Amino acid sequence: MTQSIVVQVGQCGNQVGCRFWDLALREHAHVNKKGIYDEALSSFFRNVDTRTSAGEGIRGGKISSLKARAVLIDMEEGVVNEILQGPLREVFDSKQLITDVSGSGNNWAVGHKVYGCTYREQIVENLRKAAEHCDCLQCFFVIHSMGGGTGSGLGTFVLNLLEDEFPEVYRIVTSVYPSAEDDVITSPYNSVLAMRELTEHADCVLPIENQSLVDIVNKIKQMAYSGKPGAVIKQDSTIISGRGGVSSLEKPFDAMNNIVANLLLNLTSSARFEGSLNMDLNEIAMNLVPFPRLHYLVPSLTPLYTLADVNIPSRRLDQMFTDAFSRDHQLIHADPKHSLYLACALMVRGNVQVSDLRRNIERLKPSLQFVSWNQEGWKTGLCSVPPVGHSHSLLALANNTCIKPTLVELKDRFMRLYRKKAHLHHYLNVDGMEQACFTEAVSSLTSLIGEYEQLDATKGLLAAEAPRLNIAV
Amino acid sequence: MSVVTVQLGQCGNQIGQELFKAIGDDSSSGQGLCSEGQKQAYAACSQERFFFLEQSGVPSARAVLIDMEPKVISQTMATAAKSGRWKYGDQSYFCQKQGSGNNWANGFCAHGPRHEEAVLDLVRREAERCERLAGFFTMMSVAGGTGSGMGTYITQCLRDTYPHSFLLNQVTWPYSTGEVIVQNYNSVLTLSHLYQSSDAILVHENDTVHKICSQLMNIKHISFQDVNKVIAHQLGSVLQPAYTSAVDTQYSRNPLGDLMSSLVCHPEYKLLSLRNIPQMSDSSLEYSVFAWPGLLKHLRQMLIANAKMEEGIDWQVRASQSRPSTGQKGNPSKHLRFNTSLANLLILRGRDVYSADTGGFAEPLLYSSWLPAEVAFNTWRSPKHFNRYEKSATLVSNSQSLLKPLDSIVGKAWNMFASRAYVHQYTKFGISEEDFLDSFTTLEQVISSYTHL
Ligand SMILES: Nc1nc2c(ncn2[C@@H]2O[C@H](COP(=O)(O)OP(=O)(O)O)[C@@H](O)[C@H]2O)c(=O)[nH]1
Ligand SMILES: Nc1nc2c(ncn2[C@@H]2O[C@H](COP(=O)(O)OP(=O)(O)O)[C@@H](O)[C@H]2O)c(=O)[nH]1
User: Fold this and answer.
1) Residue in chain A lying closest to B425 (CA)
2) Check: CATH 3.30.2350.10 for B2-266?
3) How many other CB atoms are found less than 10 A from the CB of residue B326?
4) Interchain contact, A136 vs B97, CB within 8 Å
5) What integer pLDDT is reported at residue A306 of this predicted model?
6) Could you state, in order of their start, the residue ranges of all structural domains in chain A?
7) Is the ipTM of this complex over 0.95?
8) What is the predicted pLDDT for the residue at B291?
């Protein structure tokens, strides 16, 4: 089996990352009752014998001390220190951390140019060490936010490093996009500058909007306290509460970050556990990315509040599939049903059969529009191990033109600042940062928008079949 | 003579395991054979073909297992070993840690060359254990990455290394709405390349077999295992010992060679399809009685009306000389109702095989005008019951029957290629747009040839 390494950068990246590790540990503890270090565990964890301090434990042996395959990077100490004092301290050791004290001041240029330059060697060193512990490294998962300075700037710098140093290893990036009312004033700059890097250097990007996470959390709470008979939050629930996990304190972002953590758990479940239809991580880009730059995959998770957290009488399995395509289950503000699909993956966990998949695809297909050359653009995976406490779950990844409005809005916000040259000097003062960085970033975004627009315009048109090659008889 | 089987990728390994199981089970029952001597002769012939008797006494399949990830192979080997009746050689497998990610180019350009030596070593060892080598039988899907890409590459290597051996490729075609989005590209690349190096390509369509499972076998939740059992049954009925002519007293010595010489007389035509009758669930089988005239009448109509199973045959279709008017290109399938054959091989097994009248298959009208029916039609027989069926018939055809699914695969791939979608995933490994165009040209040529049969 293969292994993956998580690279969490900045405050958001580290906070989301910790929720992931917490829930991953809990999931494996739930499945792996005997405490054996198995292939599934090895995909994200090392087993270190603390007495002999031998590097890698043998598969099939007892778990002694699990260490996350992770590199933690932040340019302030707060979040990382908190982690080191918290319940997860056991899974990281200080050699996996890279921190500074002064922060990036919500400035992409500081993260990307200044810290990139300063910490380059150290980051590469840490990545190499983590990679050496893997016998078959398949994927890097980068987690960061777009709006700040460290995650956005240094995070995308790390992405470049990964491409240079490990060209054969996949790079899947989870990016948290700022909402319109974000308190970081410069977040449009940071996001657009980071976008260019993502477009050019990532294999796949899973975009997530904070506003969508807030809406989903609110909906779940509403359901939980609606007073409907039987509507109580399950003890074991993973989605909005940290309860049941290792940590007990709830921080403001925890509920939101748990959703992202669950996204990552589902995404990797088929690579970690058995299933009748495995979907390996390297199949994701192969099937979902028809053109190299168009690799933004809109995620949706179901069931969120029905079957997951709130113990209301469970609805039909088919509802889970229906919900995955509805607007309010998307992790960004988007409506895939009224846009054009380039490709779609359904990753299912739990007691679901191939026939359930086929039935639901047939049922939903008429209400969805697929690009003319990919009318059967479905990729499916079945993992037999359900999420803790539930019978099944679904993660849908849509390569869909519905991402366009988000990009357009981001560009608008950027232009509003940029026309006034607001805050620009903070960036241009940074060594290596030039005006051209801004113009190139915005033109990269503009052409990305254009590419989605062109495809979207073919929606509903009956494309003529391409004339076939003629063979002289 | 012995056949060395090469199982590649998830699909190839899973079907291969079912095939050896079916062959082993069939050989161990001598139903239908009168004397102990006959039973032993059958079992010994099958044994020689497919198994190597190790010192432990447990037959070991003459097979090499190849995959780029370990899960399927370890499961396959364990399942075989658990049966206690046969196993795979402990050293006869090759696997890596990371699959080909549904990318034909990854299998063909990266994994293939990188592991060529190791794989060929395994094959050579297996071949050297055969007293006489009849040829190679490879099994794989065309839609994934390992079976399709690496399978194609290894087939080419086998052709180079063993230029005089027969090479039969069993390939599984994907469900038309798939588990793999790039399946049509992978299929086009596989089939076009195999066409250059293989002697014959024996095709199973997942859609068809799936329908057999649901309509003939009455299975509710159909798993790959169910599908694979049907495929294994069909393959077994072709590959197990049989007499190739009415006067034979010895089983065919050269199963692959005889198959090729019956069916593949021209390198432009090497796509083979399978039909069999009867096919039903165990519980229905108990209550059914069959007579040869009825079975063969159905099978003949399945052939000419191009039905893949007994249910829903169009009885209106008659053998006729009517040819699709040339010039109506683009959708050849539309104009074809009658399925013209180039060659057919009928394999009858079970009770009273010598009384069965096969004349209906020898009619010249069934065949292309340029091959006489005596040459185009062959029958093999064996009195032994096959796999619980008192009587069973399998027809291997080189006919137009794969034209429609092939045309559909090429059409969908071509549409995608017109937008150049996903092509970058292949160029990354060294497959260029020209390579794609060459593959399309090869297959359009095949489609055209079969259309004008
Ligand atoms: N979902 C989520 N968003 C966060 C979290 N922390 C910060 N953010 C968002 O990330 C952006 C600020 O980036 P941050 O990660 O704090 O800055 P950095 O440390 O310089 O990368 C803003 O849009 C915040 O709303 C978190 O834990 N979860
Ligand atoms: N009939 C059958 N088809 C299979 C099986 N496993 C996979 N497939 C088909 O094979 C294709 C995927 O290829 P696969 O063999 O899994 O990929 P590989 O391991 O990279 O060669 C799809 O069209 C599947 O429908 C199987 O056990 N039986």
Assistant:
1) A286
2) no
3) 10
4) yes
5) 39
6) 3-404, 405-458
7) no
8) 95
